[in-house]
Structures are given as structure tokens and as C-alpha cells.
Amino acid sequence: MTNNLYTILLSDENIVKIQLTNKEHPIFKAHFPNNPILPGFLQIDIIAEILCDKLKKINRCKFIAHILPNDIIDYQITVKDTNKKQIKIIKNNKKISEFTYETI
């Protein structure tokens, strides 16, 4: 669970906007000291947690740019079928990550 790591600013069926907490959060202190970034696995874990999805398989993922403390990011959600979702993460109007996963 990602306690106090983010705040949901907007949520509907196609988009979730969050703001990350500051660099004092334990995740940012550990990954990486003096160069805090959000780990790739947490980019996936956050949206799965918000959507209450239980992951079965990550089919594909691509991390393009860093997500930093205090960043505001949008998760754009496309449902491919009943148990498959494609997620794009947008920051400052640019795609910075993309992944597809299957749920149980």
C-alpha cells in the first residue's frame, strides 16, 4: 500500500489525476537518495490500487521520463476488455510512461 504517497485530484472512468507527496516520503528517500524519483513498479501499483485491480500479468511497460516528488500526473485509462487495461501516464502534456496489464 502506498500510504500518503499521493493525493487524488480527479477521478473518473477514463482519467485519474494525482499529486505526489514531497521528497520526505520514505519511497523518495530510498529511491534514490539525493535523486528522488518514483519507481516504475509504483507507477503501476498506484493506479491498480486506485482502481482496486488485482494484477495477474503485466503485458508491456515503457518508462520514458522520471516522475518526481510533488509532480502532478494523469493516468489515462483505456479498457481493452473485461480484464485488460492500457494505461498512459501524462505529465506536463507529455507521455512519460505506458503499460498494459491484465487483472484477475
Order of helices and strands: EEHHEEEE
* Total domain modules: 1
**Helix and strand composition category:** alpha+beta
Question: What is the makeup of the main sheet?
Answer: 6 strands, antiparallel
Radius of gyration: 13 Å
Major β-sheet strand ordering: 1-2-4-5-6-3
Broad shape? globular
> What oligomeric state do the depicted chains represent?
single chain
Mean pLDDT: 95
Count of discrete alpha- or pi-helical segments spanning 4 or more residues: 2
Name the poorly predicted regions. Answer: none
Helical residue percent band: 10-25%
Report the top-level CATH class: Alpha Beta
Number of strands: 6
How far apart are the first and last residues' alpha carbons, in Å? 18 Å
Q: What is the CATH T-level topology?
A: Thiol Ester Dehydrase, Chain A
- The CATH superfamily turns out to be Hotdog Thioesterase
Q: What share of residues are in beta strands?
A: over 45%
- Report the CATH architecture: Roll
Description of the molecule:
With 104 residues, the protein is α+β, with helices and mostly antiparallel strands. It has a single domain, classed as Hotdog Thioesterase (Thiol Ester Dehydrase, Chain A), CATH 3.10.129. The model has no long low-confidence stretch (mean pLDDT 95). The protein contains two helices and six strands; from the N terminus they run E-E-H-H-E-E-E-E. The longest helix has 12 residues, at 40-51.
Give a brief outline of the structure.
This protein is an alpha+beta fold and 104 residues long. It has one domain (6-103): Hotdog Thioesterase (Thiol Ester Dehydrase, Chain A), CATH 3.10.129. 16% of the residues lie in helices and 47% in strands.
